[in-house]
Amino acid sequence: MAKNIEIKRMTGTMRIVHWVTFFSMIAAVITGLYIGHPYYQTFIADPAVDKYVMAWNRWAHFIVAIIFDVTAVLVGYLYFFSRFEKPYKKLIPNKQNIVEFFEVFLNLITLNRRKKFDSSHSDSFNIVFFTIFHLLLVFMLFSGLQLYVHGLASGHSSIGTWWPTMLHLVTDWTLYVFGGNIGVRIAHHYTMYFILVWVMIHIYYQVWRTIFWKEGDIAIVFGGSKFVKEEEK
Amino acid sequence: MNDNMERVREVFTQKSTRVDTNKGEEFYNSLFEKSKARLQSLREQEPLKDIDMMDIIDSEGINRRDFMKWVSATTATLMLPPMFAPLVAEATELMNRVPVVWIELQDCAGNSEALLRSSAPTVDDLLFDVLSLEFHETLQACAGHDADKQLEEAVHLYKGKYLLFVEGAIPMANNGQYGTIGASGETFYEHLMRMSKDAAAVVAVGTCATFGGVPAASPNPTGAVGVMDLVKGKAIVNIPACPANPANMVGVILHYVLTGQVPELDSLLRPKFAFGYRIHDNCERRAHFDAGEFVEEWGDEGAKNNWCLYKVGCKGPMTFNNCSIVRYNDGVNWPVGVGRGCIGCSEPDFWDKYAYERPMATARIKAPTGGVEKTVDQFGLGLLTATAVGIGVHAIASVVAGKKADENKEI
């Protein structure tokens, strides 16, 4: 009888990054929708109360955005220099990776009828999917910071003038690409939907894998490990 | 493609839009000396019109104190320290040394209208009686060939010295035949090019002249464009808004009289003293924005309490202008003050992208990809629904296929 053995798939750092991203995203979506279109009114009618609802929403949005950015930088680093698994290696378009990509994809669309790849390690399909997500996040970073710095016309900020100057330098191109502030705003908003679509597919796929592969994939993000049958190993 | 490269180059070479309100003592001292010398040389010139500013002020019943109040306000508007106030007052007197030619192209004359309603001390007087306004079709008495002659004379006489004010967009479609001027049938484009050739600087007034404005709104049948799209190799100052605020027009002229230069400009060639901040930054309703107190519909409880107009479509957070400080009509009021939102009239493409009285989130604006007239949220929800349906189909198919596979195994 086949014996299941435990294999490690995510380090502690990776899991922390995952859940920080998860909670940041929830907060960013809720507050971002409010900033774009305030969908509830202040609950307290008394004017002499500290009730800065929009200010708090914007505060939360910017804080999680910065946390988001920092984790994106961290992920970017781990992409190339992780001592665990270097994701970029699965992105190199060599024959092995391309074959693996399509095998995993075929497994998904043939409803698990064709499992001709090694599921004990992160496969290239998974890494491409993972990379698309982070590209979307990086785009949110640039467009979001442009929307933010647009209001800092004075060129001053509480931490000095270098900050807005730097933001202008790295984000002003979005104004030209999307035809001004309104275009950047629309692009930022659109991208949120693409990210949500990504999240839906991601959750579905992880659950689906867990059910059909019977290898406990969903446990990866909690405990860091999954199981594979010994003979496949 | 070349245009795009040009734009990219612009992005990486443009000066920061930073507004430096205090450039340091050294800078202002040197500017002060320069301005003094400039005013001295202007004083030595023959006035183009022999009219004394102070006489006019007296005759209009404006006292010295009121005049100095206006001078302080104007000095502050130009973001100059108080020590410049006497120079600004002097520059006002010497405005009759600087010739101004005002031409009007494809527009509604709203900027001329705004100028006529200029603030104290009745700047109409400044402009008509002191400022040497050599040509202004809408306002002058002469017409026809006389008007043509006056224009030719002015341009010839003040070659290289006059400020050219341009009001209105330039229609470029159909060889510019949508707008012609005078008996010769000269197109607006030819007219603009001829007039700007010998101007000291070109001041585009109003959103039509700066970014094309309403005439350039989609589908732009006349192919309207702004002055800066056509005139090259000249100092151009853009004073957008619909209409441009007369305080900013007077400010630009005064700055030129005072220093002999155009004021510091941002990347859209707008003077920073006027367009350095968003109207949102100095809006009297800003506290209500931060507090999350929004007008939901016209005339509701929030509207009665002067709450923020963001949810009924105010574009203040994206619009750069000083209306929230300077206001309009002798500083009496401005759009947000009277209870309606800003429509972003001083921004490029304002008619297509800003001028709708709906919040951003519910506006039906064209997507950047072009053509798709659905709003972002409708598209987004559609996308999410499609994804959910796709996932559902896959899930059901997987379950069914899984069961079949199990049945086969048992057999």
UniProtKB/TrEMBL annotation, chain A:
What keywords sit in the KW lines? Cell membrane, Electron transport, Heme, Iron, Membrane, Metal-binding, Transmembrane, Transmembrane helix, Transport
Question: Which SUPFAM superfamilies does UniProt cross-reference here?
Answer: Transmembrane di-heme cytochromes (SSF81342)
Enumerate the subcellular locations listed in this protein's record, separating them with semicolons: Cell membrane
Superkingdom per UniProt: Bacteria
Domain (Cytochrome b561 bacterial/Ni-hydrogenase) spans 9-224
KW S-adenosyl-L-methionine (keyword) present: no
Topology of the protein relative to the lipid bilayer: Multi-pass membrane protein
- List all membrane-crossing ranges: 16-39, 59-80, 124-149, 161-178, 190-207
GO CC field: plasma membrane
**Swiss-Prot/TrEMBL GO biological process terms:** respiratory electron transport chain
Q: Which InterPro entries match?
A: Cyt_b561_bac/Ni-Hgenase, Di-haem_cyt_TM, Hydrogenase_cytochrome, Ni-dep_Hydgase_cyt-B
Main location as per UniProt? membrane
Q: Name one Pfam family in it.
A: Ni_hydr_CYTB
GO molecular-function term, one example from the UniProt record: iron ion binding
Please give the family membership noted in the entry. Belongs to the HupC/HyaC/HydC family.
Name assigned to this protein: Ni/Fe hydrogenase
Automatic annotation (TrEMBL), chain B:
Keyword annotations? 3Fe-4S, 4Fe-4S, Iron, Iron-sulfur, Metal-binding, Oxidoreductase, Signal
Give the top-level enzyme category: oxidoreductase
GO BP terms in the entry: anaerobic respiration
Q: Where in the cell is it found?
A: Cell envelope
Protein EC: 1.12.5.1
Example of a GO MF term: 3 iron, 4 sulfur cluster binding
Q: Name the cofactor(s) required for activity, per the record.
A: [4Fe-4S] cluster; [3Fe-4S] cluster
Mostly located where?
other
Q: What protein is this chain from? A: Hydrogenase
Give the species.
Answer: Aliarcobacter trophiarum LMG 25534
